[in-house]
């Protein structure tokens, strides 16, 4: 219990430092925005501060200064730069939510906080998000690492992860996404309250927290909640610009849209759709508005994409690589002929979009599939079934509230352009539809309150301003699926590992092959070069060089066919400098005496087997 308490306090300290730095810097950045509600002030400031911190760390990485002292100095400067703005801020126009509702929200996200104490085991987290961040933290600079699944791509979240890793542990990295969960919840709550009153805000926040995927993401080193907070605030800022026609909102929309695109390529879809919406908004000087939005987006977007272009000659690397000659050509000398063609992923990406949206009725059934079709989405956590009710209600009320119609069109267009390929990509849509659900729910509650109890009774003119206890209980019931899923995850994962032995035991149980990787690291430290087949999610836990991702110049598809050709397999691995080979499962080991002549079995763990390459007359390793 003492070690668990220490781990929890360390996690809370990391969260507090990250929140203080982001909020203070963001208050300074967003000082000109006409933010009236306390929650929207907090959400916009926190998101803007996260974007500012990521940009500062990006510049440190370019300068080769991604080290503890410079990173700590950036965090301290961010925490101090907004103190004058915070102290001199005007009192909010509206009162903050009741303490009861805030305490309820904090209770609902507590299981996700406990989940964040577990070591990283998410597939994408340990396959490329954390390996990228760890490589940047070790190097102290932004580097291109060919053996990574994505040597370079929009890396705003990974740079934030690297900044945390420089100062803390991989468990503390989870606080980035957890803070984004808090910011999205505040933004959804504030937007619902702004457009529909306190009840709408509370119901919107409940619908958002009802998503099991949200709680899983908040406790993992994924990046989807980071993109969600930026994309959602871009959409909210655009809607506020349409209401108030103030340039500050359009600048905020472009800046947050650029930050979303700097986190994931899907952010470009949101940015493009908001640009088209600006063009079609029917406002005067609409071309000037589009230019202003584009300029704001370029300010936050260009540093990240200019680096991608400089390193790969492809602004969407590795997507559409066949359209950009020379993509990956710099890896030909490293991985041999044909490596430059390893990134031709454009056709596969287009096929995935087509498969998710064709025939057209797949978009109609998308809410059902996102809530119940786990097998269709690789058995990952899904969204809430409440959207099966929210979407029809939004369609019903869209004729009276054109905001709902615009949001439905935005969500549909985003899903059709690629968002429907994965539930994680749909999280910004889930947040926007949660606001719509809050508005619809509050309207239904007002109608119910205005209905006379008997034919002679006078109708109630308006519902009370603050949510009553029964409305709070309704919100709790709506939000229940998300926290209950987090509790289920806690029960399945067992006690939180708080020591190195318990951590190793946990990872051995959750990540097949970890036992062999751990044994190899204990034997040769960070000096080994390992090629793993069908074990790409162990990349983060290999201290040496890890080869064997599903794509790229060292892709598994180049090695797997050679298992029946030991001489050719040995020659290729030796040319890459590989010293050890991990096969999952053991059944993949060919019963060939020529194989044992070239590869010596070192250790077996369950269905996995580790081999060492025997010394021989093979081409030497390529140098970087």
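-> sequence recovered:
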């Amino acid at each position: 219990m003492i070690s668990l308490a220490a781990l929890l306090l360390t996690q809370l300290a990391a969260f507090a430092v990250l929140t203080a730095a982001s909020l203070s810097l963001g208050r300074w950045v967003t000082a000109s925005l006409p933010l009236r509600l306390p929650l929207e002030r907090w959400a916009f400031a926190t998101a803007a501060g996260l974007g500012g911190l990521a940009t500062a760390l990006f510049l440190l990485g370019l300068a080769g200064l991604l080290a503890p002292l410079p990173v700590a100095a950036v965090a301290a400067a961010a925490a101090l730069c907004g103190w004058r703005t915070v102290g001199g801020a005007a009192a909010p126009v509206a009162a903050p939510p009741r303490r009861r509702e805030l305490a309820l929200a904090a209770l609902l996200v507590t299981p996700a906080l406990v989940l964040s104490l577990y070591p990283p085991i998410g597939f994408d987290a340990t396959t490329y998000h954390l390996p990228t961040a760890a490589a940047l933290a070790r190097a102290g600079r932004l580097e291109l690492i060919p053996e990574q699944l994505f040597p370079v791509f929009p890396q705003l979240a990974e740079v934030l992860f690297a900044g945390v890793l420089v100062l803390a542990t991989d468990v503390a990295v989870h606080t980035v996404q957890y803070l984004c969960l808090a910011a999205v919840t505040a933004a959804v709550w504030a937007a619902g309250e702004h457009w529909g009153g306190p009840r709408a805000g509370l119901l919107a926040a409940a619908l958002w927290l009802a998503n099991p995927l949200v709680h899983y993401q908040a406790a993992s080193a994924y990046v989807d909640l980071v993109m969600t907070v930026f994309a959602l605030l871009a959409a909210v800022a655009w809607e506020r610009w349409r209401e108030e026609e103030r340039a500050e909102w359009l600048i905020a929309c472009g800046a947050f849209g650029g930050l979303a695109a700097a986190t994931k390529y899907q952010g470009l879809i949101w940015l493009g759709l908001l640009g088209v919406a600006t063009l079609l908004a029917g406002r005067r000087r609409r071309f000037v508005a589009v230019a202003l939005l584009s300029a704001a987006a370029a300010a936050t977007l260009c540093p990240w994409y200019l680096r991608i272009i400089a390193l790969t000659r492809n602004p969407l690397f590795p997507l559409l690589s066949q359209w950009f000659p020379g993509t990956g050509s710099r890896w030909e000398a490293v991985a041999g002929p044909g490596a430059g063609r390893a990134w031709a992923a454009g056709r596969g990406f287009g096929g995935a979009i087509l498969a998710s949206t064709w025939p057209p009725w797949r978009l109609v059934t998308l809410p059902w599939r996102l809530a119940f079709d786990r097998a269709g989405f690789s058995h990952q956590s899904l969204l809430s079934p409440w959207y099966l009710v929210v979407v029809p209600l939004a369609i019903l009320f869209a004729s009276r509230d054109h905001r709902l119609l615009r949001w439905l069109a935005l969500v549909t267009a985003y899903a059709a352009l690629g968002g429907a390929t994965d539930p994680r990509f749909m999280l910004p849509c889930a947040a926007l539809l949660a606001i719509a659900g809050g508005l619809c729910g509050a309207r239904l509650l007002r109608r119910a309150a205005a209905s006379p109890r008997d034919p002679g009774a006078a109708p109630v003119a308006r519902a009370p301003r603050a949510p009553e206890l029964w409305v709070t209980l309704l919100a709790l019931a709506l939000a229940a699926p998300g926290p209950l899923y987090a509790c289920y995850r806690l029960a399945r994962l067992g006690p939180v590992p708080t020591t190195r032995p318990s951590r190793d035991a946990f990872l051995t149980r959750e990540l097949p092959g970890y036992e062999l990787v751990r044994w190899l690291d204990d034997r040769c430290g960070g000096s080994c070069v390992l090629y793993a087949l069908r074990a790409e999610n162990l990349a983060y836990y290999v201290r040496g060089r890890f080869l064997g991702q599903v794509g790229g110049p060292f892709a598994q598809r180049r090695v797997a066919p050679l298992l029946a050709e030991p001489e050719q397999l040995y020659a290729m691995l030796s040319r890459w400098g590989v010293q050890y080979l991990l096969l999952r499962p053991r059944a993949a080991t060919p019963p060939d005496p020529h194989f044992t002549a070239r590869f010596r079995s070192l250790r077996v763990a369950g269905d996995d087997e580790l081999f060492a390459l025997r010394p021989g007359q093979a081409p030497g390793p390529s140098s970087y």
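Residues 2-451+461-486 form one domain.
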